[in-house]
Design a protein that fits this description.
The complex is a heterodimer of chains A (292) and B (1053). With 292 residues, chain A is mostly helical. Chain A has helices spanning 35-54, 56-61, 63-85, 92-98, 103-113, 125-132, 136-168, 177-199, 203-210, 218-233, 248-266. In chain B, the strands form 3 sheets. In chain B, strands 7-6-8-3-9-10-4-11 form an 8-stranded mixed sheet, with helices on both faces. In chain B, strands 1-13-12 form a 3-stranded antiparallel sheet, with no helix packed on it. A two-stranded parallel sheet of chain B has the order 2-5. The longest helix of chain B has 42 residues, at 34-75. Classes of the chains: A mainly alpha (292), B alpha/beta (1053). Chains A and B meet through helix 7 of A and strand 1, helix 19, helix 20, helix 21 and helix 22 of B.
Chain lengths: 292, 1053
């Protein structure tokens, strides 16, 4: 609001107009309706937690080596999860999947007015194939392509951003650099892979992501859970229990894994699905915790 | 709220009646008629209510002070330090007979001329005796049986040596222990009467007595002795070593050996009388590895060899004492009051064979430390009398039986003589202490004394019953000494729980009151003031009267003043609650609405809970940083949600800036002992020095270069870099910072001896420079703050030349006259920029008072505060009275407390900063300067609290279109109400933290870490609350008066 307002209050044109009409937000994205997708979407978080638990001792013993060794496996698990269970960016499935059941009708008129943003504007054939694609090959390509892209973006963009965030939150800067980067890489794979796969580089969605304003769905819930879990994971570090697992990235990473699994599972409950985190109005508890 | 480009408001002079007194009214000509009267009336109302608000703050301060007083009274028991000294000429008996004038000793015939006193730091008793399992399963560990020399000699030659458990009085830290081992008195957390800055012992003590008697004293090892006894030791022979580096096991020990053994050689024996050797290796091995480690075994074996070598080099007239000053716990640390920490060992050795045992049972050294222990203070009378010195005046210890019983163990007359002397001295001390304290003598101990005296007289008169009477009087004297010791221990070490509970209750209800007042009222708080204060006053008055009458009628044991204060505080709170709750329409549920409110509550509450844990107390600096980053990230998220692009961009920019600045500041660290080894100090040149590294001297110059420009950029953002701001920020502030840089440059030159100038010259130049800066900040700054105009510039231009002018409305007659436009630059941030001058003044003074690294930190703090204000503005948090701004300022202040080289321990108080602008201690200035150094960050943050509602606050004046319609619509009182709400929220944060640390310290009063962690944190929190209460009242809220009237004078009320 312009601070000159009181002076020019008599002058209606100078008072600021409302921001341009809001673009309808991308709807929440649900797990694909196929049986396999539904089953694996439950197996996946459990699998990750099992991995985390099984490798915990080794993680405490030799953190850097173990994190490095687990990274490809985590990437593989995340890719298979998104390919099996989630609609890729730009696909009509993204809309339909998000609107199965009752929401289908609501979503249907929306899709022409706000076409899901094409991932690669330079490849016009891509979407056409998508619509007509009945061949297995094209379907697989349509899924693998965004999966590959999401891996690239995750490692190139999300990892450095998360590493910087870790340092800003107090991770050591002069020592433990491999730990920080690897921890960030794990968190990035957990949180960003599915987001990029589903939403591509849709600027509006990413603005919502930065504003923690996405409607809750398994993809967003697990990403948020990863961040919150990592935040809470920092809590036991200062305690004087003298346990080897209190060393820097371990608790944060375990917190992130647990947060991922919880976020992925909880966000599917009808109570939360599709809701948004409110900042200003009288929305409580839930919002207070949204940190990191 | 947008800020960029909003600074210039443009109005056509015909555009409504709200224009300020424009140039068409020829400057300052008063508006006619009722408007003038109305403005005066509004101004008067503002000033009256402002005073009322100060009254409320004063009352809050009183409540806090009362709560802290009652808790402290029960928690930190103090001991008066008596200045009296024992003297050789005056015996301690009532008749004051002159002592024997021979050269054989003062009060008692001396046994030795010389002594070698060896302290092996942390020598626990079970290290020295053969391992005896308590239970079947217990096995000898690495620390057992490695220093057998003490036990062997005591068993093989009982007349030459004895070994006893030696019980320390907690706190078991070396400094406190050395005090006990030389003065013979009990430690308390605060020894009232100790001098302002130093740690030197004022009380009568063994070292001072030896020095006074003309003995040559040598000290080797731990440099704590130098701090306690400056100037007592022979300069050339003494070699202190730094005791800080617990990672170094050998430097100190090897150093002591290097200088000790040459002194023991026959040709050097005449050079000294008493040697104090202090080995630290065992202690450091404990700290570093814990007792059960091969390094400890090796260290103990080395000590064993050292003692054997000393024995070999000893002559007949020299007494050898070896002792531990405390033990260590299973992790090798100490400081608390657990058995392992207090059970040290004492071993005395002489080649002459004068030690004895009065009973066969006591021939062998005790197997465990629980048997026949002697308090550490017993060393003082023992050593004094063995060396022919008077017993130090404050001593409460008893002579150790073995040392005076004679080789055959039946020298009762000697035992009685020494115990009679000791008892007489204790009695003399008790009498003097009772005089100072106004307390009477204890009946039981008086009876014991009389009985002992009676027996003694019988023994000396009648020859027959001599031996039994002597033994009886010996036993009675001992009983008297122990009885007195118990009384004193009870007096100085017992917590007064009811008083502590009273204090906590006062603090807690004070917080509830603040919650209600700051967060639960939906009316103009200034309107409430008269009623609130009068009800509180009535409550206080009746409470005080009730207290006084109760105390006078003798219903309670409390003193009149205590009871009156307690009931006055309670009564005033009841009155205040009543006045606030009377009208339920004014109330709202004091729960936060929205994310920001909950976040503020979350920060405060989780930090308060964390103080229950010693870990979270130790790592408070990191936790605060974590919270601040969390806030910054939340602010970034919230900014992303803003609809206006300018708000979004600016908000995200300042959030990122806020987080990065905090991270940069976090590199300035001064680690506390408990943070080792996970922390590296950067505040000083090295972890063992307290001077700045040469490169750090560049920081003040960088601050000079950049800080004014940074502040300027925030003024320019709202086009407020006008008027006084250019001179103030661009010139005066920068000049002050430059002089400060010069000051610290000279300080560095002095430390490093870079300049060929005399120290005195350098000192006087520096003092002058520092006083100049303070005069600029507080003298000139305050004067200018009173009279300065707001940061605006008003200009008139014709429309066609003004590109900022809105599209010209079609007004008839426009063609005839050239259209005039009044442009006011800096209109967007009138209140904020004007008030910020006060913050700048204090920032300058606080920067002067910090070490170079701390100056960088304070500069970052100022930047972060400004950044925070922009975040609050872009997220619409200034006008919604959100609690997050004041709470984050609280976090910022606490965070930068740690970044300016402080920790919540007494040892990090930078006493030397009192000498920055002064060459001697001057009351009250010296303590104030230390406060400015210690709490500088929090003071600065507190001063910025009003800005959380003033920054970019739009100008509001009363509605002049409907004259005299509504008396209540005084915008300036709304402003005042918002300010007091923000200020009370800030106090609420600090008061909650203070209550938490208070309660935890009280609850954990038997905790091992009480003296090291919880007590100092409580003291810091309580002092801080008092300081900030005063700063908010006297400077922050008071300053709002001048900034508001100055705006009102130009733009009307």
């Amino acid at each position: 609001m312009a601070s000159a307002t009181p002076l020019s209050a008599v002058n209606p044109p100078s008072s600021p107009s409302q921001a341009p009409a809001e673009k309808p937000s991308a709807p929440p994205v649900n797990i694909l309706p196929s049986q396999l997708a539904k089953v694996y979407s439950y197996v996946h978080p459990v699998l990750l937690l099992t991995l985390c638990a099984a490798r915990f001792q080794a993680l405490v013993q030799d953190t850097v080596q173990e994190l490095l060794r687990d990274l490809p496996w985590l990437a593989l698990l995340q890719i298979s999860y998104v390919v099996l269970c989630l609609p890729p960016a730009g696909s009509t499935q993204a809309i339909e999947a998000g609107s199965d059941g009752e929401e289908k009708k609501k979503a249907a008129p929306r899709s022409p007015s706000s076409p899901a943003v094409a991932l690669r504007p330079g490849k016009p054939g891509y979407r056409r194939k998508q619509h007509t694609g009945k061949h297995d090959w094209s379907g697989a390509w349509a899924k693998l392509m965004p999966a590959f892209l999401s891996l690239t973006l995750t490692s190139l963009l999300a990892t450095p951003i998360l590493a910087v965030l870790l340092v800003l939150f107090g991770a050591p800067l002069t020592t433990h650099n491999p730990e920080t980067v690897l921890c960030a890489a794990h968190m990035a794979l957990l949180s960003a892979t599915a987001l990029v796969y589903v939403h591509g580089v849709d600027g509006y969605v990413w603005k919502e992501v930065w504003g923690i304003a996405r409607p809750v769905d398994p993809v967003w819930g697990s990403a948020l859970g990863t961040g919150l879990g990592a935040w809470f994971g920092a809590i036991p570090i200062p305690l004087d229990w003298d346990r080897p697992w209190q060393a820097f990235p371990i608790t944060i990473l375990v917190g992130a894994y647990i947060g991922y699994a919880l976020g992925s599972l909880i966000s599917r409950t009808p109570l939360l699905y599709g809701k948004r985190i409110q900042f200003v109005p009288t929305e409580t508890e839930e919002t207070e915790k949204k940190t990191n | 709220m947008a800020s960029a480009g909003s600074g210039g408001g443009s109005v056509p002079p015909s555009g409504g009646s709200r224009n300020p007194r424009g140039p068409d009214q020829s400057g300052k000509t008063k508006a006619p008629g009722f408007q003038d009267a109305k403005a005066l009336e509004l101004e008067g109302e503002f000033k009256t209510r402002h005073i009322g608000v100060l009254g409320v703050l004063a009352w809050v301060l009183f409540l806090h002070a009362a709560g802290i007083y009652f808790f402290t009274k029960g928690f930190l028991l103090t001991r008066m330090v008596l200045e009296d000294k024992s003297s050789c000429e005056v015996l301690p008996f009532d008749d004051g007979v002159a002592a024997m004038p021979t050269g054989k000793g003062c009060w008692h015939e001396k046994s030795f001329d010389k002594a070698v006193v060896i302290i092996i730091d942390a020598l626990r008793y079970d290290f020295t005796v053969p391992f005896v399992p308590w239970t079947e399963s217990e096995e000898a560990t690495l620390f057992h049986d490695n220093i057998p020399v003490l036990y062997e000699t005591a068993v093989n030659n009982p007349a030459n040596a004895f070994l006893l458990p030696f019980i320390a009085d907690p706190p078991t830290t070396t400094l406190q222990r050395l005090k006990g081992l030389t003065t013979g008195t009990l430690p308390t957390f605060i020894d009232a009467g100790s001098n302002f800055a130093g740690t030197a012992i004022d009380e009568d003590n063994l070292v001072a007595q030896l020095h006074k008697a003309g003995k040559t004293l040598v000290q080797l090892g731990d440099d704590t002795w130098q701090a306690l006894f400056p100037g007592y030791f022979h300069e050339n022979l003494t070699h202190p070593f730094d005791s800080f580096n617990v990672w170094d096991l050998h430097t100190v020990d090897n150093g002591v050996n290097e200088y000790l053994f040459p002194l023991l050689q026959p040709e050097n024996r005449s050079k000294w009388d008493v040697i104090f050797g202090h080995y630290l290796g065992v202690d450091h091995a404990g700290h570093r590895y814990g007792p059960n480690h091969a390094a400890m075994a090796a260290k103990l074996q080395q000590m064993d060899k050292v003692i054997r070598d000393i024995i070999a080099a000893l002559d007949d007239d020299t007494l050898l004492v070896v002792m531990g000053d405390h033990g260590m716990d299973i992790k090798g640390d100490h400081g608390g009051e657990s058995d392992d920490e207090v059970e040290a060992a004492l071993w005395m050795y002489s080649k002459r064979g004068i030690f004895g045992r009065t009973s066969k049972d006591t021939l062998l050294p005790p197997k465990h430390a629980r048997e026949r222990p002697v308090p550490q203070i017993d060393l003082v009378p023992t050593l004094s009398l063995l060396l022919g010195m008077p017993i130090p005046f404050n001593n409460l210890g008893s002579p150790i039986e073995e040392a005076f019983a004679g080789a055959s163990g039946n020298d009762w007359s000697n035992l009685v003589a020494v115990n009679r002397l000791t008892s007489a001295q204790i009695k003399r001390y008790q009498r003097e202490y009772a005089k100072v304290r106004g307390a009477g003598d204890d009946e039981e101990s008086f009876a014991l004394w009389s009985a002992a005296d009676q027996e003694f007289k019988t023994a000396s008169k009648s020859f027959k019953s001599r031996s039994t009477a002597v033994r009886a009087s010996y036993d009675l004297y001992r009983k008297y000494q122990r009885q007195t010791l118990d009384i004193c221990r009870g007096l100085w070490a017992r917590f007064d729980v009811p008083s502590m509970i009273e204090g906590v209750a006062l603090l807690l209800s004070g917080i509830l009151l603040l919650v209600l007042y700051a967060r639960g009222m939906n009316v103009d708080r200034t309107e409430l003031t008269p009623q609130l204060l009068s009800f509180a006053g009535i409550g206080a008055g009746s409470g005080a009267a009730a207290g006084a009458s109760l105390a006078l009628t003798g219903v309670t044991e409390m003193t009149l003043i205590d009871l009156s204060v307690l009931l006055a505080a309670a009564g005033s709170m009841i009155g205040a609650f009543f006045s606030m709750l009377k009208k339920s329409a004014n109330l709202s549920v004091p729960l936060p609405n929205g994310m920001w409110g909950w976040l503020a509550v979350f920060f405060t509450v989780s930090q308060s809970i964390g103080f229950a844990s010693n870990s979270y107390t130790i790592w408070e600096d990191e936790i605060l940083h974590f919270f601040l980053t969390t806030f910054g990230v939340c602010a970034g998220i919230s900014s992303m949600r803003q609809k206006q692009t300018t708000d979004r961009v600016l908000g995200v920019y300042h959030s990122v800036l806020f987080v990065i600045l905090g991270r940069v500041a976090s590199f300035s660290r001064l680690c506390r002992e408990e943070q080792m080894p996970f922390c590296r100090s950067t505040y000083y040149a090295s972890s063992t020095s307290s001077i700045s590294a040469p490169w750090q001297l560049a920081i003040p110059f960088l601050v000079t270069l950049f800080l004014p420009s940074v502040v300027r950029s925030f003024y320019v953002g709202s086009k407020s870099y006008e008027g006084a701001a250019t001179l103030w920020i661009g010139f005066a502030f920068r000049l002050g910072l430059f002089i400060t840089s010069l000051f610290w440059m000279l300080e560095g030159a002095d430390d490093g001896e870079w300049l060929p100038l005399r120290k005195e010259t350098l000192k006087s130049v520096r003092t002058f420079l520092a006083q100049l800066v303070l005069a600029l900040a507080f003298g000139a700054g305050t004067g200018a703050y009173f009279y300065s105009k707001p940061c605006v510039s008003v200009s008139v231009s014709t429309a066609q030349e003004d590109p900022n002018a809105p599209p010209a409305p079609i007004i008839a007659g426009q063609q005839q006259q050239p259209r005039k436009t009044v442009t006011i630059l800096g209109f967007g941030n009138l209140y904020g920029t004007r008030f910020f001058f006060l913050v700048i003044n204090f920032a300058l003074a606080i920067i002067l008072m910090q070490k170079p690294m701390g100056q960088g930190a304070i500069a970052l703090l100022l930047w972060q505060i400004l950044s925070l204000l922009e975040i609050l503005d872009t997220n619409a948090l200034t006008l919604s009275n959100s609690s997050i701004g004041p709470v984050v300022l609280g976090l910022l202040g606490s965070f930068y407390f740690f970044k300016t080289g402080h920790q919540a321990v007494l040892s990090t108080i930078q006493w030397e900063t009192a000498f920055i602008p002064l060459s001697t201690i001057k009351y009250p200035w010296s303590p104030l300067l230390v406060v400015l150094n210690t709490f500088g960050a929090q003071i600065l943050a507190a001063l910025a609290v009003p800005l959380t509602v003033l920054w970019k606050r739009p100008l509001q004046t009363h509605d002049r279109t409907t004259p005299g319609s509504n008396k209540l619509a005084n915008p300036s009182t709304k402003l005042l109400s918002d300010v007091i709400q923000a200020v009370c929220t800030h106090i609420l944060y600090l008061a909650t933290i203070n209550l938490a640390t208070t309660m935890w310290a009280g609850h954990l009063r038997r905790h091992l870490m009480l003296y090291r962690i919880f007590s100092p944190r409580f003291m810091m929190g309580a002092t801080l609350l008092g300081v900030i209460d005063v700063v908010l009242m006297v400077f922050a809220v008071a300053g709002v008066r001048w900034s508001t009237t100055s705006v009102g004078e130009i733009f009307g009320w």
